Structures are given as C-alpha cells and as structure tokens.
Amino acid sequence: MDGYGNLIAGRLRKLAAAGSTGTLPFSGHCGGAIHFHDGQVVYAESTRTPGTRVVAAAGVPLPGGPPLAALPPLTRLAAILAVTEPAVDAALELMSAESRYGRFRPARVPAADPACGIPVDSLLAEVTRRQRLLRQLATVVTADTAVARNPELNSPGVQVSARQWAVLIRVRPGITPRALAWELRRSVFSTTAEVYRLLVLRLLFAAGQPARAAATGLVSAGAAGLEAAGLEAAGLEAAGLEAAGLEAAGLEAAGLEAAGTGTAGMGTAGTGTTGMGTTGAGPADGHGPALISFIRAVASEPGATRRPARIGSGARRQGPLALPPAG
Amino acid sequence: MTVPVADTLLVPVARIDGCALACLIDASTGMVIAAMQREGSISLPAAAGGAADIANVVGLLSGELATGDGLEDVILTFNHHFHVIRPVRPDMDTQILLLVILDRTRTNLAMARRAIRDFCTSLSA
Q: How many domains does chain B have?
C-alpha cells in the first residue's frame, strides 16, 4: 500500500478501535464513502465502481430486509457476497492517491445490514491482496485499458465460462473493463480479472497490442449453457441491449456457433469455474500473458515467512557436487 | 478476508474427522468468504490462493478439452494432509469453491469426500 493508502488505513483502524457507527466520506477523483457499524465496515461505495447497482441486481436488500439467518444457505452466501464484493471493490478504489477522506459523520442507524460486517483488518488485507494482483495484470490490462475482440479466429475450439461469455458479447471497440463492469453490474476487479483471462485466451486484445491470432476458432457452448448463464439473453432484452445481441449474432456469423448445438449461447468451461486461458494453444508464438496467480499475490507479502527448502523433502540439489581434494 | 457471519456455514464441514481447515473461496477473485481453522500452522491465504489457482487451471484444461465434462473435485495428497477442492455449485454465476484440508492421520478420505459432497448438496437445498 502506498503512503496515502497507509493514511487511510490508519484512519480506518482508529474508527474500528473506537467502535464507530457512521460514515467516512471520500471526495476527489473518486468520491464515495465507507460505512461503519460498531467498528466494522458494513458497506463501501465509490463513484467509480458499480456498488449498490450490484447489490440491487442481486436482489439483496440493504437495511430493513429479511435477516440473513432466515435465508437458505446458498442464498445467504450469495447475499453476503453480493454485499461484500462491491464493498471491497469500492474500498480498493477509494484507497488510492486520488481520493481524500473527509470528516467522519457519526450516525445511530447503520447504512447497511450490520450482519455483513467486515473487520477492518480483514478488509485492509483483502485490499492489499487485490492491489498485488492488479500489479500482476497491469503490464497487460488495467480497469481503464481499452480492449477489443480479436478478429482472427483460426484454431480449434475452446469453451468459455458463462461469466466470460457475458463479457465477450458486450465487448465493442474502445470499451474498458470498468465500463463492462457497470454494464454487467459486477465488481470492477472481478471484471478486470475476467478480461485478463480472455486476453490470455486471445479472444480479446488490449489497445496498443497486436491482435495475435486467437487460440480459439470456435467458442463452443453447451445446451445447458443458456441456463447456466443466468438467462443472459433475457438480461440483454431487459436492458435493451439489442446491440449486444447483434454482437452475439455476429459471433455466430463468424463461425462461432456451438459445435453440434447450433446455438451460440453461454458455454460452461465444463466445470462452471472460470476458464483460464492458455499461452500454448493455437499459434505457437508462446508470448501471451501469464496466468493470473492468486498464490503469487500471497507469496509477495512483505511479512510472508519463507521456509528454506529441505534436502530430502523433495527439493533437488542444484549444481556440481563438491569433489574431495586430490591426493 | 472472511465475513464472520458466513463462517457459521462451515460448521458441518468442521465436524469431519481430521478437518484442519475449511474455507469458501470466490474463484473469480480469490477472496476467502468464510473460514474455520483448527491447525494454526496452515497459512489460510496461501492455501486459498493455491486452491483458486488450481481450480482456474483445471477450468483452463476443461475449456481446452471442450468436452463438456464437469469437474467434481480436486484432491491433492501431501505427506501429512489432503486438500480437497470442490465447486459448491458449478452452475452458479459466481463460482464458489470449498477447500477442506484434512489431517491424513485422523481422517478417512472416502468418508470425508462423501461428507463434503453432501455438504455442497445441502447448501444448494
């Protein structure tokens, strides 16, 4: 975290230690607020991240809604994630040099459901982790990098996940991960990560970089893909995004119909997990971006304990053996 | 990062014999949503980050194979622990992984795997 980030972290820790309830406003290039209840962060919002739109899209109410404990487990989990992900996304944005915090405004009623309270130290650790991940991606793409669809598709097919498909069909010249996040009502961070994965797959390319021949010729989709995508088609109609629908049709016209199904829908990567790109498939230039590594973001922590490799535990000795002196 | 109210969801998993750590991870961002840990010597961030990386690489493999074959779980066998990684519900828009680390000396892997599967099923109910 940079110097200004440390200032904000210090302020947040003081509010946590005092068990504060209220709002810490931010202004500047990125305005917003971090809301507290009894010293825990219950929500955060910023002008540069979708925030409450994400929460609204997930159907999760802010204060006054049904208690979390009354919800079925998976719905409860989705509800928690629907609040914490945009909050962390906003906090990540606010903790930059472009925002300044103002005077804390105490309040009696929390601005969001206190059941989803996040300890400040946990929030700061997560923000730091994401900053490290973004540094991994920054050589290729940031939230504000313009991307475009790769027009060259000349290799065997690959499946993309429903999330990736939703991003892919909305890409048009000049669009950025941040703009896609607003359209999709998803966090900027997760959308940037998905765009990066599509760059690795060479389905997209970033502005200023050559559109290398893609690793994919067909983006295949399963018959179950439409359901798995959460009825993206319905979402497109509802949002009036006919242009995006035409883009999807354009993908079909370009020969991207699902093999055997005749419908270009949302593919699942066989697992429902995010499909990651490969630098090896397709044309063998081998110079695509590296895979995202979450564990590298952990290993680069300043306080991370590094244990030396132990001989006999699977570590291999390198270099020549020492020879005994002659004679 | 964990949200304390979410940690209670993992109580049934923590009861599995030999369970040293259990956590729920957002595979897309690598964020830990909930965690319960018995052995303090295991680094939760490292274990969760590694699990998310492995799930993403397997997703890459599945994508490249393009056979429509679904992932059920991934089991890593170390000298002292098993790591079981399972998507909670593959058809969710947000892909959530369950990571369970088991002490090999105190667990029955087959029983644990079944309990993990049943837990994921019960979450969806």
A: 1
